[in-house]
Design a protein that fits this description.
The protein contains five helices and six strands; from the N terminus they run ααββββαββαα. α1 packs antiparallel against α2.
Length: 171
Amino acid sequence: SLSASSRAAASVAAAARAASSASSAALRAASPASFSASRAALRSAATAANDHLLDSARQEAGQGPLRGSMVAAALRGKDLFVSQSGGGQVILVRPGTVARLASQEAAARPLGSSHSPHVQFRHLELSLGDLLVLTTAAPPIWSDPSLSSLYGLTLPQALDRLVASSPHDLT
């Protein structure tokens, strides 16, 4: 028999798969470079994950509510459309600059806490060489100097550094 935390982790993983499937289908059906289409796809992903968490909580009556967070993005050319539901942040690293985008309002309303998910949207214009980190970890998980040192590394090197310098277990 699975422990309550194992059931919750399995349910959250299933919610992530449902969200990914919903957003992929919505993006395939959307017209290229459309803000409204990207926003709809990201909302669809949050709704799918939220619905799954609510359904799982109903099936596991007496286990308490299941809550989750999701930070997702849709890239159209150099336009990046980002959504946040629950806790998390988007970190954009450019030479000499670290920008952190996080919504406290979204963090206060995790997925699985209401029938309609709260989704915070943002639009960023990316440049060649930008490093983007999407995480459901609450800020500040990494210092600005740690993040700045990632610029110019390969993605595997940057990932290894992020995992090594995190105070949380990211494996």
